[in-house]
Amino acid sequence: MVIKLARIGKLVRISGSVVEALGIEDITIGEIVEVGEEGLIGEVIRIFEDRFTAQVYEDTTGLKPGEIVKGTGKRLEAELGPGLLNNILDGIGRPLELIKNLRGPYITRGVKVNTLPRNIKWYFTPTVKEGDEVAPGDVVGTVKETESVTHRILIPHGIRGEVAWVKEGKYTVDQPILLVKNGTNEYEVTMKQYWPIRVPRPFETDGRLPLEKPLITGQRVIDTFFPIPKGGTAAIPGGFGTGKTVMLHQLAKWSDAKVVVYIGCGERGNEMCEVVTEFPKLKDPYTGRPLMERTVLIANTSNMPVAARESSIYFGVTIGEYFRDQGYDVALMADSTSRWAEAMREVSGRLEEMPAEMGYPAYLPDRIAEFYERAGRVKVPGKPSREGSLTIIGAVSPPGGDFNEPVTIHTLRFTGVFWALDADLAYSRHFPAINWLKSYSIHAGAVAEPWAQSFSQYSKKILGWWERKHMGFLEYRKTALDLLGEAAEVESIARVIGEASLPDEQRIILLASEILKEGFLRQSAFDEVDSYCEIGKQFCLLKLMIDFYLTASELIDRGVPFERVRSMPQIFKMMRVKEDPRGIEAIRELSLEIRGEFQKIAREYGIEGVVVGS
Ligand SMILES: Nc1ncnc2c1ncn2[C@@H]1O[C@H](COP(=O)(O)OP(=O)(O)OP(=O)(O)O)[C@@H](O)[C@H]1O
Ligand SMILES: [Mg+2]
Predict the structure, then answer these.
(1) What phi and psi values does residue 198 have, to the nearest 5 degrees?
(2) Sign of torsion, CA 408 242 231 517?
């Protein structure tokens, strides 16, 4: 990186997080400036004649006109390399722990610290040798950063040539591990590199791959009904207290991604505090290792400077892309993108730009689109050939819970999955409060087929006998969604005429949908067993309830009164079996019990040939 000599200007105006200065003639848009005596970090966002405007990523209280502004010649970049995982960074990539140690918990202004630790020596194992040709994106070696993730070291952008030498052993991120020669040019490669955060990684046109593998989340309403593929995008809008944060935490904990980037953007500090205190105690269900070993947390809470909210989103995405380029599946969660949009609105207001809808700048839809477009599954450039994916999930907090507002509307234009949080469901403590009639996943078809594959992959050990049976998942899913749709109609009739006046074939629809809502859709994040539901168990539960519904409907068709079905003692058990620590074994037992009870009813009413389940 070329660092120009410091150029010094003078502050003339301060308006919140936006400052105006003059005196640096060759200043450029996007340049990082150090503002005031303390050297607060800012970025140039507008230049007009001899004046320029910068947004400042730190608290500007106390700044005065006349103070100096230094041009640094640098851009806003992310420092990438071993040491990212297991870390908590602020909105411009500074480790919070380090800032605290340097300045104490309160004063955090003007602190210049590196993202990556400089004191740790990582063991670098090369995968290339002297004489090999290397190009940008090639993997040249690995570092076992944590037990869960092996960090792959890549050739940075712009470097290609022949490996002159390569070292194996323990080095810090500052020490060269490889020398690349190209004619008379020599490049020393270290384990760290810098990527600009505001531009996506360049890809060859055929670099994007179709989205077909589901991101398994262990949340039934998502995996079974509204799945998100690896590399997909999802919006989770919901009013105050409808469960956005809890859901994002659940996804961060349980998703089967290799690396998780969690951005706390403008939300309450105590929510981030929960993450910080709770995550280190949690174990990854896939590896049994601490979850933090695969997690990067970015915290820019509501008490932190507003402009850094804006940058925190880009930092997070860039870190996500970096791990994706190593050939990993990465999942990124942002809570909440509304606060990010509000930061844009605030800065835009201070720039006195012409506002568009509800005061948001006219470029809001472009920014939202650019953010979600950085998701995807790609063939990564460089050797060896590898694929990686970046899944982006954004919470949206529409004011008053009304989805008819710019941030929600534009987000839904650019995301493939919509998990609609519903205030009524949340009010009646039905969590996750994802409305099954309003939500959708445009990928439901695409991921369904591999869903069946991953079913056998994840459940081989536990299932055994299930595996050899016909799956029929798609059929069960469809029956369940149809049932929920019909139940909504029947409910509206029942509200008028009363449930007892409904014909029996409609009452069974209501009962079966109640079982499905209570026993399947409802899933407490705080239940030790049910917080995570593996995919095989999801299928068993769904099958249990749909088989019950189909058989009960048939019996009712053939003359059994609804009340007789409703008196079955297994109904209550169906609603609770999800919490049984014995898992699938308990479901199987219950399904046999139900079969016995149905046979008993059939005998009582002299009905023959009823087939219960498959
Ligand atoms: N999956 C869940 N299981 C159990 N309880 C939940 C679940 N989701 C939400 N809750 C309950 O709802 C409360 C509010 O949830 P949460 O804080 O996630 O809402 P939010 O949408 O992020 O709210 P805000 O708009 O204030 O940020 C939680 O404290 C918890 O009691
Ligand atoms: Mg929240």
Answers:
(1) -90, -5
(2) negative
- Relative to beta strand 329-335, strand 259-265 is parallel
Please give all residues whose CB falls under 5 A of ion ligand 2, grouped by chain where several chains appear.
Answer: 244-245
Q: Is 246 in the pocket of ligand 1 (CB under 6 A)?
A: yes
d(CA 159, CA 180): 8
- What is the per-residue pLDDT across 389-429, written as a single tens digit (0 to 9) for each? 999 999 999 998 899 999 999 999 999 999 999 999 999 99
Does any domain span residue 322?
yes
**Residue nearest to ligand 1 atom 28, measured at CA:** 243
Give the pLDDT confidence of 175-231 residue by residue, as tens digits: 999 999 999 999 999 999 999 998 887 765 568 888 878 899 999 999 989 989 899
pLDDT over threshold 90, residue 308 = no
**Same-domain check for residues 289 and 407:** yes
Taking the CA of residue 336 as reference, the ligand 1 atom at the shortest distance is: 27
Coil vs helix vs strand at 237: strand
For residue 420, give the 3-state DSSP assignment. coil
Asked if 415 and 499 sit in the same domain, the reply is no
Is the Cα torsion angle 495, 496, 501, 502 positive or negative in sign?
A: negative
Positive or negative CA dihedral for 217, 219, 223, 227? negative
Burial 568-606 (b: 16+ CB within 10 A, else e): bebbebbbebbebeebbebbbebbeebbebbeebbeeee
Pair (406, 363) in one structural domain: yes
The size of the chain, in residues, is 614
409 alpha carbon – ligand 2 mean position (Å): 19
Nearest-CA residue for atom 11 of ligand 1: 243
- Which residue has 């919006």 as its token pair? 235
CB 412 within 8 A of CB 418: yes
H/E run at residue 135? none
Question: Which pLDDT tens digit goes with each residue over 494-540?
Answer: 999 988 899 999 999 999 999 999 999 999 999 999 999 988 899 99
The CATH code of the domain that includes 592 is 1.10.1140.10
Task: State the residue range of the domain holding 176.
Answer: 120-196
| Residues 261 and 287 both lie in one domain | yes
Please check whether residue 210 is in contact with residue 179, taking contact to mean a CB–CB distance below 8 angstroms: no
- What are the CA-CA distances from residue 503 to residues 484, 551, 566 (Å)? 18, 17, 14
Name residue, tokens 């219950």: 590
Q: What is the mean pLDDT of residues 3-21?
A: 84
Indicate if ligand 1 lies below 6 Å from the C-beta of 397: yes
Residues 191 and 217 in one domain: no
Could you give the number of structural domains in the chain?
4
Global pTM reads 0.92
Last residue of a domain, one of 440, 468, 501: 440
- Residue 191 and residue 173: Cα distance in Å, rounded? 5
What are residue 287's phi and psi, to 5 degrees? Answer: -120, -15
Domain assignment present for 177: yes
Rg (CA), the chain: 28
In-domain check, residue 365: yes
Residue to substitute in 236, 245, 526, 532 for testing ligand 1 pocket (most ligand atoms within 8 angstroms of CB): 245
Task: Work out which ligand 1 atom sits closest to the CA atom of 271.
Answer: 17
Domain closes at, from 440, 463, 482: 440
Cα within 13 Å of Cα(361), Cβ side: 19
Tokens at residue 239, please? 């009013």
272 to each of 235, 302, 308, 340, 413, how far by Cα in Å?
Answer: 20, 10, 16, 16, 28
